[in-house]
Write a structure and sequence with these properties.
Helix content: over 70%
Radius of gyration: 21 Å
Number of strands: 0
Distance between the termini: 12 Å
Number of domains: 1
Order of helices and strands: HHHHHHHH
Structural class: mainly alpha
Strand content: under 5%
Mean pLDDT: 86
Largest sheet: none
Shape: globular
Length: 234
């Protein structure tokens, strides 16, 4: 950028000026890598938990929910992954203040999901209270993630964004709808009577809905990090 600015004047930047574009470029690359790292962590979490539980700890199939892995040998992976997502989200700096606030809130809720486990079978009064904090943290976490998809990722500083940007926006909105849809279904599952949920509980609907939501979240961040559909440099 600096070279182009001065070429018309037949001036040449000094060494210190030469370093600035490279530094900015490295910062930009790191910014995209941060987004892709968040995406990879989200996409991989359900697969790592399910496969690791079966092959490393001889679990018979999948757990009823992602949070249920807290009570298995995969607990450290579950907690560590969510805490890592939380740290990355806290480090995330968007274009405006609301981006920063959303990232900080998502971090708090992600860590809340990790550190306040879901209620085990036959919970005590304290375990039930902790489970409520877990449930609220998870719900708020997914709501903020949907907000990223609908309101933040779709922003553009161009009146007529390029085709790839419009396609990415469509993906962001699709991921947002998937997250919201999964969250609504999880809420319905929680309030339905046991006589009805017992009919399909063997299908582990909570695990699959949570997995779909977290994968949609991860995919939206991976796209935002230009893991795919990267804009061509002019």
């Amino acid at each position: 950028m600096l070279v182009k600015s001065f070429q018309g004047l037949k001036l040449y930047p000094n060494k210190s000026m030469n370093k600035e574009p490279k530094t900015n470029n490295r910062l930009l690359i790191s910014y995209f890598e941060l987004r892709k790292a968040i995406g990879v962590l989200g996409i991989s979490l359900p697969f790592i938990l399910a496969i690791g539980g079966i092959f490393l700890f001889n679990l018979l199939g999948i757990q009823p929910s992602l949070s249920g892995y807290y009570y298995t040998g995969m607990r450290d992976v579950f907690v560590g992954n969510l805490c890592a997502i939380g740290v990355f989200l806290w480090s995330y700096t968007g274009y405006e203040r609301q981006d920063d606030i959303a990232g900080d809130l998502a971090c708090i809720f992600a860590v809340g999901v990790a550190l306040f486990p879901t209620s085990p079978p036959d919970p005590s009064t304290l375990e039930r209270a902790v489970g409520i904090v877990h449930f609220l943290s998870a719900a708020c976490f997914f709501i903020v993630l949907a907000y990223f998809c609908f309101a933040l990722f779709t922003k553009s500083d161009q009146d007529s964004p390029p085709d790839k940007k419009r396609l990415r926006n469509a993906i962001y909105r699709a991921c947002g709808f998937i997250i919201v849809g999964a969250l609504v279904l999880l809420g319905l599952n929680a309030i339905l009577p046991d006589s009805l949920t017992d009919l399909y509980e063997h299908l582990d609907p909570v695990f699959w809905l949570e997995s779909i939501a977290i994968i949609a979240f991860g995919f939206s961040w991976f796209v935002k990090g230009e893991g795919i559909l990267k804009d061509e440099i002019q």
